[in-house]
Structures are given as structure tokens and as C-alpha cells.
Design goal:
Blueprint lengths: L1 E6 L7 H14 L3 E5 L13 E4 L26 E3 L2 E2 L4 H14 L1 E8 L1 H12 L4 E5 L15 H22 L2 E6 L6 H9 L4 E3 L7 H13 L5 E6 L11 E3 L7 E2 L2 H13 L3 E5 L11 H19 L5 E6 L2 E6 H4 L11 H8 L7
Parallel strand pairs: 1-2, 1-6, 6-7, 7-14, 8-10, 8-13, 9-10
Antiparallel strand pairs: 2-3, 4-5, 11-12, 14-15
Helix pairs in contact: 1-8, 4-5, 6-7
């Protein structure tokens, strides 16, 4: 049997661990694995653009960041073109991909991706492709899975940054604002902020009033606490405000960024404190995955192969209650898993005296 594997969308620590898991499990079954280059785009060149992968080709890749197959969040397979906007993949693109897959004799494809990539995978499954999905996003915001690989690595990078900002902030008695990823969901900011000792955490799910944050910092100042750490997710909104964006290119979603600078400027004006902002950006996506993400990625890859072996197509690997199982792909897309403002994690933050700005 021949199977394909591809990763699409943004890169993420742990992608290579998934590929390693797929190749290892498939080899045990005597199957051949074709890794398509640059996501779905690798299905389009005549004969396909791919690497044949054996266990010898994947030795040591689990510890590497990025992906040996390359990836893209642009191209001909954009089924999700904006916030909540869905487009049908053109018929000629589907037919070209089908011809190449059939020519190679590939019987199933494992798609590693987030909401947009899995929306594409769902459409292809509906068009007759045998597809299995593997959830991938550092934002940890996919429905039907309690955790995605890459999230722990992203949180770890936030904690490291906060540890560093705390020492320089204390030295200069400054307010240090760290902007982290999180378009719709504040999981990275919340987990990273709690673990990294942040004093204020601002997330998309809870509108914040900058005056509340400023009052909180002033209270800390009166208590003799001369420096403060503020973590803000890129998608956080000041009460009644809009998303802070940089640009909009083509049909892709708007590029977020800049909320950290605005928060820093307003806090400086309202508190009189020397304030600095730092954008962690793509540092959260790069670098070696943590042990948790390497293990979770490997488990996801192995499970995807087992789903193919059982003929369970149109399903996505999922992680719930420490168990790796699967759910229909349609349960995982179009609806994001957001932070519940009344959740235990938010309660934990409040109990620790962390300001959420509301």
C-alpha cells in the first residue's frame, strides 16, 4: 500500500515528529510513504512533487523544528480564505490532484494542518479522496482535541521570554509588555503568562479596559512593586475596540500585530511608568519541539496510520483525557476552541492575583 503525507499552513514545532511517526508505523505494515512538498501544492505538478520516505530518511528528525517537507499557507487549495469565510476548491485543481494521486497509486493521504488545512482536507474527502487529518496549531484552538502539538513549545518560548523580561524590567523598574500569538484564542497568553509569572494577561476572549490595567499597575507601585509584566495576545481587543492589524495581503486573513505597542504606550501615559514592549512573533513557531510535543506528534502520526489501516477516512486524530483517538473532521473545523472566561484556568489566574483587564 502507498500512502501520502503532507503538512499545510503555518509551521509548528513537532511536525517532523508526526512525519517520523507516520513513516515508522507505515514501515511496520510494509507500506510506502510519499511526502508531498509544500503541502497540497505538491499534488499539482505532473507526477507530483514528493519525497519517498523510509525510516532511514527520518532518523533524528523528531528533534528538529519546522518540517522536512516544507509548507505554505497560500496557493491553489485555499478553502478557508478569511475569518469564517469558506471557498470551494476549483474543479480543475481537484481533478489535477486526483490524476496525480491515482498515477502514483496512493490510496490515502494524511493531512497535518489547522482549521484552514483541515477544511481543505474535508472538501477533498467529500470529493472521494481517502483522507485522515492530524490537528496542528500552536494556538491550541482546534475543536475536538484537548491539545495540539506545538502548543507546549510555544508556551515554553513565552515563559523563557518572560523570565528574561522580568530581570531587565526589575533592573530598570519598568513595565514590560510581551505580545504573543493568539488571533482568536488566548491559550498561549494564558498558559505562558501563568507559568512565566505575568502580573496581567490580556486575551481575545475577555475585553479589557486599559484603565483597569493601569490602576492595577499603580496599585502595585504603591505596594512597592516597581516593575510589572504584561502579556497580551495579538488578537486581544481594548473594550469596544477593533483588532489591531498590520496589513491584508491577497485573500489571506489580516495580519495581526501592534497591540503590544499600543498597550505599552497607553500604560506609560496613564501610569507615568517607563514602559517597553516586545513582540515574540515567529520565535514561538521556531526551534526544537519540547519533549511533550515530540511524543504527542509521534502518537498522532502513528494513530493516523492506524486509522488508514482500519479504513476510517474523513476522521481527524484527537487527544482527550490522555488518550489519542479520532473524531470526524467536520467536528473539528469551522468552530474554534476558545478560552472560557469562567474556566478553571481563568479562575486560577485570578486567584493568583493576575489582572485580566476586565
Amino acid at each position: 500500500m502507498k500512502i501520502g503525507v503532507l503538512n499545510s499552513g503555518g509551521d509548528c514545532p513537532g511536525l517532523n515528529a508526526v512525519i517520523n511517526g507516520v513513516v515508522g508505523a507505515a514501515d511496520k505494515l510494509g507500506w510506502e510513504v510519499y511526502g508531498f512538498i509544500d503541502g497540497f501544492e505538491g499534488l499539482l505538478p505532473e507526477g507530483g512533487d514528493y519525497l519517498k520516505l523510509t525510516p532511514n530518511d527520518t532518523i533524528g528528525i523528531a528533534k528538529l523544528g519546522g518540517t522536512i517537507l516544507g509548507t505554505t499557507n497560500k496557493g491553489h487549495f485555499a478553502a478557508k480564505i478569511g475569518e469564517g469565510d469558506i471557498a470551494k476548491i476549483p474543479r480543475n485543481i481537484i481533478d489535477t490532484a486526483r490524476d496525480n494521486v491515482n498515477q502514483l497509486g496512493i490510496e490515502a493521504i494524511i493531512v497535518i494542518g489547522g482549521d484552514g488545512s483541515l477544511t481543505t482536507a474535508l472538501q477533498m474527502n467529500q470529493e472521494g479522496f481517502n483522507v485522515v487529518g492530524v490537528p496542528k496549531t500552536i494556538d491550541n484552538d482546534l475543536q475536538a482535541t484537548a491539545m495540539t502539538f506545538g502548543f507546549d513549545s510555544a508556551v515554553t518560548s513565552v515563559v523563557d521570554a518572560l523570565d528574561r523580561l522580568q530581570t531587565t524590567g526589575q533592573s530598570h523598574k519598568r513595565v514590560m509588555v510581551l505580545e504573543v500569538m493568539g488571533r482568536h484564542a488566548g491559550w498561549i497568553a494564558l498558559w505562558g503568562g501563568i507559568a512565566g509569572g505575568a502580573h496581567a494577561i490580556l486575551i481575545p476572549e475577555i475585553d479589557f479596559d486599559i484603565d483597569n490595567v493601569a490602576d492595577f499597575i499603580n496599585e502595585r507601585e504603591q505596594e512597592g512593586k516597581r516593575s510589572s509584566l504584561v502579556v497580551v495576545a495579538e488578537g486581544a481587543r481594548i473594550s469596544g475596540g477593533k483588532l489591531i492589524t498590520k496589513s491584508r495581503g491577497g485573500t489571506s486573513e489580516v495580519t495581526l500585530g501592534g497591540v503590544g505597542d499600543i498597550v505599552a504606550e497607553q500604560l506609560s501615559a496613564k501610569t507615568g511608568k517607563d514602559t517597553r514592549s516586545c513582540v515574540l512573533g515567529h520565535l514561538q513557531r521556531g526551534g526544537s519541539p519540547t519533549a511533550i510535543d515530540r511524543i504527542l506528534g509521534a502518537r498522532f502520526g502513528v494513530k493516523a496510520v492506524k486509522l488508514i489501516e482500519a479504513g476510517k477516512f474523513g476522521r481527524m486524530v484527537s487527544y482527550e483525557a490522555y488518550h489519542v483517538g479520532s473524531v470526524p473532521i467536520e467536528q473539528a473545523v469551522h468552530k474554534l476552541r476558545l478560552v472560557d472566561p469562567d474556566s478553571e484556568m481563568v479562575d486560577t489566574a485570578r486567584a493568583l492575583g493576575i489582572c485580566l483587564g476586565d
